[in-house]
Amino acid sequence: MLRQITRTSCHSRTLSKRLLSLSTQYRCITTKNGVLRENMSIISDSSTIQPPDSLLQKNFLRANYLKNNKTISNEFDLFTGTQHAVSLTMADKRDVMSLWSLLEACLQSNYIERSFSILKSLYEIESHRKSFIDDYNYFFNHIATRFSSVKEMSDRLQKDLTLHFTDISPNDKTVAILLNQTLRITKKNGKLEDNSTRQNLELFLTMSSSGLRKICSNIDILTLEDYKILYSKMDLIKDYHLPNNIRELIVGEQKNILQDEMANVENIERIGATNTGTTTSSSSSNDTAVKETTTQLQQDDSATVRLDEDVKSIEKDAAKLVNVTTLGMRVIRHSLQGLSLSEKQNELISNFNTNSSSGVFNLDNKKPVNFFEMYKSLKTDEEKMLFEQNLEEFNQNRQQTLEVRATDAAKERWRHDFEEAKARGDLSIQKSLNSKLWKWYNDMLPLLKEEIQDCKENLDKKNVGSKHVLNRSDFAPYLTLVDPEKMCVIAILEILKLNSTGGISEGMRTARAVISVGKAIEMEFRSEQLLKNESYLLKDINKKSNEFKQYVRNAKKSLRSLKLDESKVIWPQAVRAKVGSILISILLKVARVPVEGKNPLNEEKVFGDAPAFSHSYQYHNGVKLGVIRIHPSLINQLNGERLFASVQPQLLPMLVKPRPWVNWKSGGYYYSQSSLIRTKDSPEQMAYIEAASRSNTIDKVYDGLNVLGETSWTVNRKIFDVVSQVWNNGKPFLEIPGIQHEPEYIPRPSSDADPSEINTWKLKNREIANQFASNRSMRCDMNYKLEIARAFLGEKFYFPHNMDFRGRAYPLSPHFNHLGNDMSRSLLTFWKGKRLGADGLRWLKVHLANLYGINKIPIDGRVEFVEEHMDEIRDSVDNPLDGKFKWWQKADKPWQTLATCIELVEALKLENPEDFISHQPVHQDGTCNGLQHYAALGGDMVGAAQVNLIPDNKPNDVYMHVANIVRANLQKKIENDPEDEIAKFFIEKLNRKIVKQTVMTHVYGVTLVGATLQIDKQIHDMIGDREVSLKYSKYLAKAVFEAIRQSFNGAHLIQDWLGECCNRISKSIRLDVDKSSLLQGKKPDFMTSIIWTTPLNMPIVQPYREVSKKQVDTNLQTVFISDPFAVNKINARRQKAGFPPNFIHSLDASHMLMSAIKCREDGLEFASVHDSYWTHASDIPTMNKNLRQQFVALHEVDLIERLKDEFDERYKNYIQISKIPKTSEMASEIMARKNLLAAELGRPITYADELKLEQKRLALLNSEYESEVKEGEQMVTTISLAKGCEDLFTAEDRKGDRNVLTVLTPLDLPNIPAKGDFDVSNVNNSTYFFS
């Protein structure tokens, strides 16, 4: 039962009346707003209709959701209005973001008066008024620390809200600030125990209409000590008001919690004493681990690492790799040093079980720790669970080390090398890259400090004077936020990283450089703020209370999530550009490199220095670009190699479970924010996702992503040893290119050679150069993967995921993950193992056959294939590189084949192979999954059979099927034209491999050009001549397209219907569009994107719009940058080309997430590579059942009918631009109507007039008065006359601008193609649907 809070008189009657009035006013407003929120709880708009959960059908699907909720919100109208209207609306959003970032910068720099002026500017933006209280709270929380009395604080609050911001009322966060500052002030004044303090606090607590729990949820405002006082000392709140993690910390001080903790420790120690290999970890060990991790990070910062030489690899009990000599590789190796363990940390690990008789945890300090081997040695599930709990706690601080950017460490390394080089002499300094960087840093720092001082003086001035001062005021608040030493380091690293990017050899585009540096400074500021907030929450905790260490970690996680969720501010691109340009211009001024030359008079060597960077212009693809050039000597020192995006620590696999997704910007890493959707400058997509997230309609999407992120992995040590041996050998092997330092060009022909011979020589050398660059790039990429894999040997790690705009899931760590190539996938294995059992042993063999390429025969045949090749398999395991058969090297996926061979042979070594604990992921792949979805959508019996949706005793090979149709068609062509040489060529050479990729990608929208290149890759070696090969490839690509249409007619009807819908929608406008932009006969802007909702309620917005850029003046040059707030006219061509494949991708993504959730419910480990699903061998039967059930559940609803219903509702009352023949009867009627209206108006009729009349007609038809409805029925408009014209006239009728009349017609989508007889429930019994 809730305790009643007694309101008592305040020590100040005036203050009491004032706050009571404020409280009453607040309760009235929030009560009214509560009704509004209740009415608006289902977020919807003209394009997103969100139903209550009760309307969701089985497995999250809904069929008639549009009919149950007709609420249309104007929230997204701006995206479909006119260009002018959109520009005005987005200008408000752009202004808000600019003012937000400026407010943040000024407050952080303590410019209070300017901050308040910015706050008033934010208040003046009417569209922002409803969320303004958040901005005021941010300001009030900052200035409240200056108040010395509660009265002073309350007076300021009342003054601001009654004089300046009259429409605003305080909310729960405002109350939390009042509580926090009241406790601070009274503690400082020694009045905490006074009765007046209690009365004030009680009064503040009554100001919330949402209850005390909501006030207490503000853990970024209230400190741990605040909660203790309110709960323990004053009894003003109860334990159920406290946030969960805070409750554990506060209530945990009571005796019963301590006893539970001690019992738990005793239990762990008891298990450790009686079971070998079990882990125990006392709280003091955990506390020491935190300290040791901090110490280790400090030691890393000062470690001697030379960026101009090979950076030391992390110590592992594995071969060191011969690395590709690039700065990017060195940075990766440095980043991975965060995984290193100190001696004391090793001692802590060994103390996980001090009584282990087997010695498993008696670690050899000379050998690196292998957590995976320790885990596998444990005997019982209880032991393994305790070990994983301790490891998760132990890895918390190591994860922080990996995520937080160590710029101080880079600076220290430069300094160390400079001092060493200086002691050895100038020559060493000239040769050392680190020394150069340190000198640049030293020369740059005082200039930057001088600029920052000028900025501060500029901010202190009341009156702004010169243009230079005006320009400085744009960026001054931001340049003061980050330590100048860090900014120097960041600027230098970013510029080196950008070498040879953007198509600029030996340099970079100026615009890219200034934005990259500015953004890097912003990210550093965000990281610092997060760490500050984390320490603020727990600043009062007793650091020696070890029993609460785990609770502290949980509270920190909650705070990180909260702060990252609230992080809505991004610096404007213009600010990023100006901050970046300041730093780069200073660097350009100071950075110099030593050069040498010859005196032309005496041929003696002379030495000097030259600028390391220079700013100039060049033409690139016909466009004049500003570029920053790097001096050739520095290029040579960087090895002339393009520096791949430097792998920042936060982009590595995670050592702890990722932060679970709970909303659109809360999930993944702990110290950096990730968005649910990876999209570039698409405010429309993000607005829909945010709305869906607020309305809690995409929780199943979050659940699916969390399943993927919580799957734990480790590195396959045996495969790594083989790969590293091949790698270090340096010779080409399978997909690994060999080491090649220079391309081997063909000698130039003699000067009198035939021009065609010279031309051939040029073409072949160009191919050689391209191949060399490709191999070099591939070797760099593989080096990154292998170096990361080596560092994570023996570790338990996770891959956090997010999605593209279609809903397809991707790991956030880009270089090393299970979506990589065959080698990358072979290096990964599940951390958790499961007993094979009879089913598992069988499926392990099936998996091996599949990987080898034997996947088009019955399951039993695949098992037999493996059993018949056991000699070759054992030879592959015993001698993978020098064996007798080299069987695995001939497989379709050789590295994964070898990994599975090793797993199978290890199992067969046991007396009972079924007892083997398997960690190997086993895959189940769909048969051309896009065609599977198309066949289900169209009910296509023939197509369904070819892609194994229908039960059969053997798998159908869709690629062979298409190849046979192509061959039959070619035979007919030869019969009609015996001279058709291309057809004759392919009759002999055609096989499934040639057509496979084109068939696979056809449903995903591959173009004729793309298909031509795909086929050319397969036949180029057969023909040799590039030009002839492309000619033959184009011929066959057309034949393949024709064969697919013949075989999958139902799929093509659906594909054509999707394309036609898109064609009409993308040329439509809203009926209530702003008419002012259509005067004088001006044509409307097409602003309507294709938008649909997936079966998991995720809104998909196609982001294809025309690109716009804005001009920003910097002190380097004027740069053009993309405007993230711009909403431009759509790109109709890309919208149409993208819609059919994107719609299918959204379905396969939904199927994957539904399957992931179901598999996790059944206790399975689950991973996916789009339409390839992975789990343990023993769990394949369960996963197979789930895959089929979820596919049936997905398609039990007629998804095309559902899409049509959604489009009809979403684009209701939209008007389409169409063309009809001038000679038609419809055209005559429309022209007659236009002439009549023009005569009435006394001027020519415009589009605006036509829209206005049609709007009136529809309003009458929807009237509740019968007389008005009849008037509407009798009313005729030019638009109503044109209804149905899209289906009356063919494309041939509309040809020629002179012969057609452009008209406005109601948007009328084509009828859905008739659905075939295929029953999707058959999939439940299809063995080869996924196999």
UniProtKB/TrEMBL annotation:
Residue ranges occupied by any DNA-directed RNA polymerase N-terminal domain in the UniProt entry: 397-710
Subcellular location: Mitochondrion
Record's keyword annotation contains Ion transport: no
Reactions that this protein is recorded to catalyse: RNA(n) + a ribonucleoside 5'-triphosphate = RNA(n+1) + diphosphate
A matching Pfam family: RPOL_N
Ranges of Low complexity composition bias in the record: 274-286
PROSITE patterns listed in its UniProt record: RNA_POL_PHAGE_1, RNA_POL_PHAGE_2
Biased composition (Polar residues): 287-302
Keyword set includes Transit peptide: yes
SMART domains per the UniProt record, alphabetical: RPOL_N (SM01311)
Residue segments, region Disordered: 273-302
Enzyme Commission no: 2.7.7.6
Superkingdom classification of source: Eukaryota
Keywords: DNA-directed RNA polymerase, Mitochondrion, Nucleotidyltransferase, Transcription, Transferase, Transit peptide
Annotated Gene Ontology cellular component terms: mitochondrial DNA-directed RNA polymerase complex
A single GO BP: mitochondrial transcription
Predominant place of localization: mitochondrion
Enzyme class, UniProt record, top EC level: transferase
Annotated family: Belongs to the phage and mitochondrial RNA polymerase family.
PANTHER family, alphabetized: DNA-DIRECTED RNA POLYMERASE, MITOCHONDRIAL
Full protein name: DNA-directed RNA polymerase
Gene: RPO41
